[in-house]
Design a protein that fits this description.
Structural class of chain A: mainly alpha
Number of strands of chain A: 2
Helix content of chain A: 55-70%
Mean pLDDT of chain A: 79
Low-confidence stretches of chain B: none
Radius of gyration of chain A: 24 Å
Distance between the termini of chain A: 42 Å
Distance between the termini of chain B: 14 Å
Strand order of the largest sheet of chain B: 1-2
Largest sheet of chain B: 2 strands, antiparallel
Shape of chain A: elongated
Shape of chain B: globular
Order of helices and strands of chain A: HHHHEEHHHHHHHHH
Largest interface: A-B, 52 and 63 residues
Oligomer: heterodimer
Number of helices of chain B: 13
């Protein structure tokens, strides 16, 4: 009985609620956008590189942590021996100044850290945010008040500052990549919570949700079966924008020396030292800077593509290569 | 009480409540975990006896709410600290003493504040000019090649972390081309010209990143306004395109730009931390990074609170300005 009620109630007859496109329709709309497609390919390649990091470095015959003291010129302050910062058949992208660690290995392992931290943190932020938002919307007045004020405060506090400060109070033995993930996850959920709360409040009074409530289903069941599908589009849209933000945040924290610490390689960390070494080994600056730029750019464009695919009424916010007269859409 | 004055009063009250809540959360989060603060402050070679003594001196044994109460008292009325033999008085907005240097945190912040304010406020002027200017230009030149170029530049600005652009700027401008010396902070009161020259690159790095969002927003808001009927009427009356764009369409972008500016103060402060560290500017951000590295909790808590204060205040001011720019908000 309740099943039939649900089924008849869903389809977006109410114009205030954006219709949730099916997965297939979503993919079609995403594929229609050329920029997003290119970005998706780049992201897929990056994920592949990150996953295959041990394989790639085995192919090169190096690893990210071994020092090569014989390949750096200690008389000249640790500059890599050989042209272009020590690029050779053994070391495809040259060596790190002073330590002589292999740059290619550090770069691909850095991708692991960067993407791993950013994606896991996004997952954490999204789950926490949805949980808080739905709880605030479905709870009584007090629950809503407390959770909403907490959300306001979390949104108001600058993420970088809080992350920086939180990293100070955790004992030094804690594994750093996990720590950075947790810190970003625990303070970055505010906007997802706001979106989820607003959307749940809108969905709550729809017929199919009322029907489920009248059928005597418990709140948890209603939240899972009736509300979460309606939340997917707006939450996914924002979550896609969180990924590049998290990548930048991890790199920034590691750049400041409080994020991921050596010997674990990280792009932000590589940039810290580039300041001193760029003349001796220019790729020491260019590699991590380029990697960060490409990754964040691809993630941003893909995120915008996801948004456009989920909500076709809104045109692209980035407007890559618009030729039409926009704005009236 | 209703109307504009009521709105402002309510908003300010809400700001005070938010700030109090922020102080509780920050205080609890930072002082609830540390088991080894005494150990770190005392140094690695301290005996357990000495560590216990330090813990007593820092009142680490008191329950948390007692310490928070003392902290609030210090903030409002000042506090006396015994430093072994003598008693030091810490006047009214007292944020405690640094574990490392025994310096008063309020003093420390006050000496660093001008640097950070110079950086953020100067960059803000620059990103508003750059961002809104680019937005206006691309709305005006919509559909042409110049707009596409601007869009590409804006996108690149969105995707570049502030420390990457800062690093590249510093290396190219100061290192390779030697157009500017490596930045060194000079106080405005000492030499305004040197102050501006030395801050030029830090301002640029921070502003280029932040400007991108403003460019997109301004462009979108202007195109929306340009599509409205009253603009068509202006055009029909023969108002010049320059006046339509510069006077009427730009007004539509005013309120959203104010709102975004408030929203971005938080991220700009985060960017300022990176910029200060990168360029070696002795501001709050650089000090905060240092305090985090040596686990100097009173300094960390004090700085987070002061930064939180500015961000919450900026949001409140923006809400009021937003209401001035768009009077409908007051009724909500």
């Amino acid at each position: 009985m309740s099943e039939t009620l649900t089924a008849s109630g869903t389809a977006g007859t109410d114009p205030t609620v954006p219709a949730v496109p099916g997965a297939r329709r979503f993919w079609r709309r995403l594929r229609e956008q050329r920029a997003a497609l290119v970005a998706a390919v780049v992201v897929a390649l990056l994920v592949l590189v990150a996953l295959a990091a041990p394989l790639l470095t085995a192919l090169e015959g190096q690893d990210p942590t071994t020092y090569h003291p014989t390949l750096v010129d200690s008389a000249r302050g640790g500059v890599p021996v050989g042209p272009l910062g020590g690029i050779s058949g053994d070391h495809w992208l040259g060596l790190e100044p002073q330590t002589g660690r292999d740059l290619f290995a550090r770069l691909v392992y850095g991708a692991r850290v960067s993407l791993g931290v950013a994606l896991t943190a996004t997952l954490l932020q999204t789950s926490l945010g949805v949980l808080m938002g739905v709880a605030a919307a479905l709870g009584n007045r007090w629950v809503d008040q407390v959770l909403s004020r907490l959300t306001d405060i979390i949104v108001a506090l600058p993420l970088m500052i809080m992350a920086l400060a939180l990293l100070a109070v955790v004992p030094s033995g804690f594994p750093r990549p996990l720590l950075v993930t947790l810190v970003l996850g625990l303070i970055g959920w505010g906007n997802i919570a706001k979106i989820s709360r607003a959307q749940t409040l809108a969905l709550k009074n729809l017929d199919h949700v009322s029907a489920a409530r009248l059928s005597g289903w418990n709140t948890w069941h209603i939240a899972r079966r009736e509300l979460l599908p309606g939340l997917a589009a707006p939450v996914l849209t924002y979550a896609a924008l969180l990924v590049p933000m998290n990548i930048s945040a991890e790199a920034a924290l590691s750049f400041l020396g409080v994020g991921v610490k050596p010997p674990t390689p990280s792009w932000g960390q590589m940039l810290t030292a580039a300041n001193v070494w760029y003349q001796a080994a220019p790729q020491y600056l260019l590699l991590p800077a380029g990697a960060l730029f490409v990754t964040v750019l691809a993630m941003t464009v893909l995120g915008d593509g996801v948004r456009t695919a989920l909500d076709p009424r809104a045109a692209s916010r980035l407007r890559v290569g618009t030729t039409r007269e926009g704005g009236s859409a | 009480m209703s109307g504009f004055a009521g709105f402002v009063t309510r908003r300010l009250l809400a700001t005070v409540v938010t700030l109090l809540a922020v102080s509780v959360i920050v205080y609890v989060v930072f002082y609830v975990t540390p088991g080894d603060v005494a150990q770190i402050t005392c140094g690695p070679r301290c005996s357990p006896e000495q560590v216990r003594q330090v813990a007593g001196q820092l009142h680490l044994d008191d329950p948390l709410y007692v310490r928070y109460w003392h902290f609030l008292q210090g903030l409002v009325a000042g506090q006396d600290y015994s430093t072994g033999t003598s008693v030091a008085h810490c006047p009214a907005p007292c944020l405690g003493l640094s574990y490392q240097s025994d310096q008063q945190v309020t003093d420390l912040i006050l000496t660093k504040l001008p640097v950070s304010l110079s950086l953020v406020l100067g960059a803000m002027v620059l990103w508003l000019i750059l961002g809104v200017g680019t937005g206006v230009l691309s709305a005006w030149r919509r559909g042409r090649l110049s707009e596409r170029v601007l869009t590409a530049i804006t996108l690149a600005g969105t995707a570049t972390p502030v420390f990457v652009i800062g690093l590249v700027l510093m290396i190219v401008v100061c290192g390779e081309l030697e157009l500017l010396p490596f930045p060194q902070y000079v106080a405005f009161t000492d030499d305004p010209e040197q102050w501006a020259w030395n801050l030029l690159l830090p301002w640029l790095s921070l502003a280029l990143i932040e400007a991108a969002a403003f460019a997109r927003l301004t462009r979108a808001a202007m195109l929306e306004t340009l599509a409205e009927d009253h603009i068509r009427t202006f055009r029909a009356y023969g108002v010049s395109e320059r006046a339509v764009i510069g006077r009427h369409a730009l007004r539509g972008a005013l309120a959203p730009v104010i709102a975004l500016n408030a929203n971005n103060v938080g991220s700009a402060v985060g960017g300022a931390v990176l910029t200060e560290t990168l360029f070696g500017l002795p501001g709050i951000g650089q000090e905060l990074v240092h305090a985090v590295r040596v686990v100097d909790l009173p300094v960390v808590v004090g700085m987070v609170l002061v930064i939180g204060f500015f961000v919450v205040l900026a949001n409140a001011v923006a809400d009021v300005l937003y209401a001035v720019a768009d009077r409908r908000v007051v009724l909500v």
